[in-house]
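Feature request disguised as a bug report, sorry. It would help if multi-protein outputs had a clear separator. Right now it looks like this:
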Amino acid sequence: MNAKQIVRLSNIIGIISIMLLVYWVFTFILIQVFGLKVFRENMTESFYLSVLGILALMAGSLIINIMFNLTRIAEKHNLDVVNSKSNRWRIMTLILIFPLIAIILFGGDYLTAAKKEKLMIKSAESIIAVNKANSDKLVNYNFSEKYIKETADILEILSGTDKNFPSVTVIVKDSIKGSPVYLGFDDYYEGDLKDTIQPQKNRFLYKTTKEERDYLENVFEKNSNELRYSNYNGRYELFYPYRKNGKKIVLYFSDTQRYGKLGS
């Protein structure tokens, strides 16, 4: 391989490396700005580390060009005919890669969210189906320390059984001084049934957005059985209504993850 061929090869490697770096930066911006979760942890980290390989290729091609210092000579003696039509197609192909990357990333994020939704629904169904006695205890709400403690114990056992089990809160509708409120009970309660000081409803107020309040109103007042699932920037939420013998609760699942669920 002569000097001209070496310089040409190094130029090709340099151009390819620059394009790969541009695509990588474009991909990174989309992931960070839109909070996309696409690939599993090992694939995501490998993808991020690949930029080091790209920079190494760029550095290597630059060093070769400097060492031989033959770029001008190679261009001067280059008798190849430039096909402008072919170049236009190449440029168009390179540009079209950008929307293709966006489609892949947003599609992967959608598949991750859909997979997470199925897992959360399965978790909700397991709470209700695996142990009917515990399900009856959850839906048989009355504000008392016994109910709060039993609910915490049930949820703690469920979350401790499966390491992938999302955080879960039991939401009920109640009132404080005549005003309707929503209360939330999770797997943590530090009280003791022997305590003389009884729990206060104010401690268990469940904060909601307007959209969530509208949804809960439909469940508790209009007997809606609709699920509510949402995800944003790696946070996944599921509201799962459950009713029995005229009593209603909503199981609220939430989970946060840094990585997607696609890939190996």
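(second protein starts here, but nothing in the output says so)
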Amino acid sequence: MPAPRPPRLGLALLVGGGLVSFIALGVTPHDGLHPLALFGALLPLQLAALAWALLNRR
């Protein structure tokens, strides 16, 4: 049986992904929001949520 992971790891992962997404969205061009720039900015948060879900499945 694997050792239980601390619940703070998942929270830190999601907060980190949200912070990276927030920063990435802040550096997008201001002349117009391109859909690919938005998807690229939200990708770290989505990957963090996916990793969190895979780490916490039972």
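Even a blank line would do. Unrelated, but nice: The chain has two helices and no strands.
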